[in-house]
Every structure is written in C-alpha cells, then in structure tokens.
Amino acid sequence: MLNIKLSLIFFLFFYTYLIKSQTTENVKKSMTEVTSIYVSECLKDKDCPSNSIGCLYNFCYYKFYCIDNNCISSTVYDLNKNYTNKIVGVCSQEAFNKKECSTSKCKSNEDCISNNCVNGTCMSNPSSPIILCSNEYDQGSPYIKCNKIAYEKCNNNNECFSENCTKNKFCSKNYDYSKKDKASALFLLKAVVGLIILILISLIISKLLECSSYKEEEEYMEEEYLEEEYMNEKVEKGKTNKEDKIIKQNDIIKKEKSNNDNNDNDNDIEKNETNVNEINEIKVEINEFENNNTNENKIKNNNTNENEMKINNENEIKNNNTNENEIDNNITNEIENNITNENEIENNITNENKTGNENEIK
Ligand SMILES: *[C@@H]1O[C@H](CO)[C@@H](O)[C@H](O)[C@H]1NC(C)=O
Ligand SMILES: *[C@@H]1O[C@H](CO)[C@@H](O)[C@H](O)[C@H]1NC(C)=O
Ligand SMILES: *[C@@H]1O[C@H](CO)[C@@H](O)[C@H](O)[C@H]1NC(C)=O
C-alpha cells in the first residue's frame, strides 16, 4: 500500500513538473529554440502544440515576439497575465515621421511590448528591436524565420521579416511576395522540370532495358531453337542409320539362320536360293553407301564401253558405206554390162539386118 501511494505521489509530482515545465517553456524561449521548432503537419488546430496559433494550410502556425533574445508566443498573452493587454505593435521614428505608422494608445511603457510608450504610441527601441519569428516556406518545406517586425528601423531587406526595407529605412508590413513568388516559381519550375527529366530518364532506361532484354531473349531463343533443330536432325539421322543397320543386320541373321535350318531339306532348295538372293540384295543395300566410288567407276567403265561401241558402230557404218560403194560399183558394172549387151544386141540386130539385106540383095 505504501509503495502504491509513494509511486502515485511520485507520478503526480512528475506529471505536474512536466506540465509546469512545458508551460514555463511556452512563456519564454530563446531565438535559437524558436528557430529549431519542427513545424509539424496538421488537419485541425488541436493537432498543434499550445504555443502554436493553430493549423494553417496543413501546417502548425507560430508567431513569436522576441526582445533581447526573449521570445514569447502570441498565444501566451491569454495564458499569462503579465503579457496580457500588451501592445504588440511598434512604431519606429522613421515610419512615424512619414505618418505611416500608428499603434493602440498606450499609457505607460508597460502597456507596450517594446516597453517604450511615447506620446501614446508604442515606439520601437533601436537598441533592442522587436523580432518576429513565424512560419516561412523554403522550397515548399516550412520553418520558423526570425526577423524585424513591421515598422522597425532597417538598412536592408534582409533585416526585415517582410524582406522589404522601404526607402524611408523601416520594415514594410507589405510582404515582398514577388521575391517569394519568384523563388517559389523557380522552385516549382525546377521541381516540374526535374520531375519531367526523371520520368523521361526512367522511361528511356526502362525502354532500353526492356529492349535489350527482349533482344537478348529473342537471340537466345533463336539460338536455342536452331541448336535444338540441329540436335533433332542429328539424332533422327543417327536413329534411322542405326535402325536401318540393325534391321538389316537382323534380317541377315534371320535369313542366314533360316538358311542353316533349311539346308537339310532338299525340298526347300528353291526357297533357300531365294533367301540367299534376298540376303545378297540386303548386303548390296548396306554396301551401296560405301560402294559409291566403285559404282562411279562402273559408270565410267560403262561410258568407255559406250565409246567403244560407238567406235565399232562407226566402223560398221564405214563398212556399210564401203559395201554400198561396192554395190554401186556392181550396179554400174551391171549397167555397163547391160549397156554392152544392148550394144551387142543392136550389133546383132544390125548384123541380122545386114545379112537380111544382103540376102534380099542376093
Ligand atoms: C508578472 O510580472 C511581475 C513583475 O514583472 C511579477 O512580479 C509577477 O510575479 C508576474 N506574474 C506572474 C503570474 O508571473
Ligand atoms: C508628443 O505629442 C505632443 C502633442 O501631440 C507634441 O507636442 C510632442 O512633441 C510629442 N512628443 C514627441 C516625443 O513626439
Ligand atoms: C515594399 O513596401 C512598400 C511600402 O509598403 C511597397 O510600396 C512596395 O510595393 C513593397 N515592395 C515589394 C517588392 O513588395
């Protein structure tokens, strides 16, 4: 029981200390503390810490006023009575002289955050100017920027939160949006161009990879297909050769066996003869592949035979021709003989006529 009580007390003490430290932390912060605040994303005001004004454009919005490195959140004015009803606005002499600046009427220095009330106006203290720390966006990501509040005295734009130091040497309340717009536009342009380039590069790379892989695959497939085809052809050739040889050899063995079996039978002599013939034919078939050269020689021999035949034929033809000539000679001889015979007959006739005539004459 004692332990439980002790632990409960310890827990309460720790809890209150935590809350207290948080609230006191909220009251005063150094400028480095403020600038190191992580600007978190949000949907509602409740998503943001108590020192934040609330949720603005999905980011927790902060506003701190700092004098001499003491920063107080704008929200604290309601939490801490010491800071309530204080006039946040300030006027520099430069702005006041140009009648551009006015604050709520102050009665004493304590009414002003600048702790300087002059003729009812909260005037700035050039030795300790009011610094505004608030949300700023650098290339889309928010952070806390600290710089001189509006109407504070300035020499250049970099001194002002608005980044606008007027010709009359005071920070303008009009924010230099053109600069920011330019920056954001440049950032947007960079982002868009970068994105487009990235997409293009990734597209090209993916296309190249796809292409090369496809090409490689295609080539590989083609190679494999060719190789497969070649192997199939080889295997089939080997198979057919082997099969043929085996079948033929088996046939020879069978036939020779049957021959041996049938040798004793005188009746089957004819069969044996045919078997022997078949065996011889098969042997010839087997040897045919190997005897191509001898076949060629045979063909050559045939050719020479043919040539010889031709020569013989030619000779025969020549002989025939001489025969014909002889016949012709015979014929002419016969004709000549005939002619001589005719002459003889004529002579005979003339002779007969002569004798006749002689007889008549006689
Ligand atoms: C407010 O400030 C005064 C003096 O500056 C101080 O005495 C007082 O304790 C403060 N009050 C609180 C609630 O902090
Ligand atoms: C304050 O105001 C009064 C009258 O309005 C003027 O006479 C006086 O010079 C002013 N003082 C300063 C410091 O501006
Ligand atoms: C700077 O402030 C002046 C005065 O408020 C204003 O006229 C001018 O337009 C501002 N300049 C820029 C760039 O915003």
UniProtKB/TrEMBL annotation:
Keywords: Membrane, Signal, Transmembrane, Transmembrane helix. It comes from the Eukaryota. Residues 253-274, 342-362 are annotated as: Disordered. The keyword Transmembrane applies. The chain crosses the membrane at residues 185-205. Residues 1-21 form the signal peptide. Residues 342-354 have a biased composition (Low complexity). This is Dickkopf N-terminal cysteine-rich domain-containing protein.
